[in-house]
Write a structure and sequence with these properties.
Layout (H helix, E strand, L loop, with lengths): L1 H19 L4 E6 L6 H13 L8 H17 L6 H15 E6 L5 H10 L1 H5 L11 H12 L7 H12 L1
Parallel strand pairs: 1-2
């Protein structure tokens, strides 16, 4: 239950930033992040319904309305709650991208997701990468190994090739 609340809080915070700050975000969610159907139901709310108003308490809604009021008035429009929620949701949908990843070695996780949440896979664009080429794996390893400041450039390239072989 704690993990479900954590992913819910992450999604809610991210949606708030996208809706109020017009911030663009890509969320990478792995199958490990959604270990139960309850976790996937939270993600489905965002992906399928596209509306997250029910995620917010009355207190949260008041804060969002106040923030949206200034945004709407600055744009020269007449403030209404309906317009505020419409703009808030529109900003979220325009700015957020969710990438769900399932490992190829565990096709059962993807199949389970498809069976339990068919709308999740019918709404987005699907890219199924069956096999990664050696070049892609080296580039990916390079990318993540570069994040470690202790690794020299030569060490990064050598480790990347070693990991791929």
């Amino acid at each position: 239950e704690l993990e479900r609340l954590m992913i819910f809080k992450l999604l809610k915070t991210t949606c708030t930033q996208c809706g109020l700050e017009d911030k663009r975000v890509v969320l990478l969610i792995t199958s490990d992040d959604i270990p139960t159907p309850a976790h996937m139901a939270v993600v489905q709310d965002l992906l399928v319904a596209g509306s997250v108003g029910h995620w917010y308490s009355s207190e949260d809604r008041v804060q969002i309305m106040n923030a949206m009021r200034s945004i709407i008035l600055k744009s020269g429009l007449l403030f209404t709650e309906d317009l505020a929620w419409e703009m808030f949701n529109s900003n979220i949908l325009r700015n957020i991208r969710v990438v769900l990843t399932f490992p190829a070695v565990d096709g059962h996780a993807f199949q389970r997701c498809v069976r339990l949440f068919p709308a999740v896979v019918s709404a987005p664009s699907l890219i199924i990468e069956d096999h990664w080429s050696q070049e892609i794996m080296i580039d990916t390893a390079d990318h993540y190994l570069h994040e470690n400041p202790r690794f020299s450039e030569d060490l990064v390239h050598g480790l990347s090739r070693l990991l791929v072989e």
